[in-house]
Amino acid sequence: xxxxxxxxxxxxxxxxxxxxxxxxxxxxxxxxxxxxxxxxxxxxxxxxxxxxxxxxxxxxxxxxxxxxxxxxxxxxxxxxxxxxxxxxxxxxxxxxxxxxxxxxxxxxxxxxxxxxxxxxxxxxxxxxxxxxxxxxxxxxxxxxxxxxxxxxxxxxxxxxxxxxxxxxxxxxxxxxxxxxxxxxxxxxxxxxxxxxxxxxxxxxxxxxxxxxxxxxx
Length: 217
What we know:
Blueprint: E1 2-5, H1 13-21, H2 23-26, H3 29-48, E2 53-60, E3 63-70, E4 74-80, H4 84-93, E5 98-103, E6 105-108, E7 115-118, E8 122-123, E9 131-135, E10 138-139, H5 143-153, E11 160-169, H6 170-177, E12 185-192, E13 194-195, E14 201-202, H7 208-213
Parallel strand pairs: 1-12, 4-5, 4-9, 9-11, 10-11, 11-12
Antiparallel strand pairs: 2-3, 5-8, 6-7, 13-14
Helix pairs in contact: 1-3, 3-4
């Protein structure tokens, strides 16, 4: 797996990340969603540099210009519900992408702080031999991404997978390395050190879905 950590180079991206971490700014769910969307736009731009292009002629009112245009057939797949603002940011840059949505949630087990990942819904176009952008804002334990990938494989095998995350924990990155194809790319805006006993990223941001859309039961 090739890891692209975008905060290794300082940029305005750090402003958006700082704001989604700030508890006071987090109170504004509209601003939180917009910052996640903007992070998706930045990642989408950087990710686009790694895709395939071909020279094509573009006719203007005054002449013809050869330009390198994107050739990949992109399917943008987001994990509900937290992935929706990130999905929109990516879609702003890959506006011709097909779209897929998959649900995944943590189901508590009897053992304290233990859980399993339940995947119940997957709506997708054909993904066979296409480029999949798999968006999940928080890569914590990595179990959700692996469960989602196992469900995706039942519908077809993408040509390549680009995982897009806002914040990832080192433990989660190590976990998914063993379950995704070797040519998978991980694009992440920030990498944090560890997880707490409940599997949440430290320092992280909290629950991205709740911050974007309100507290759930």
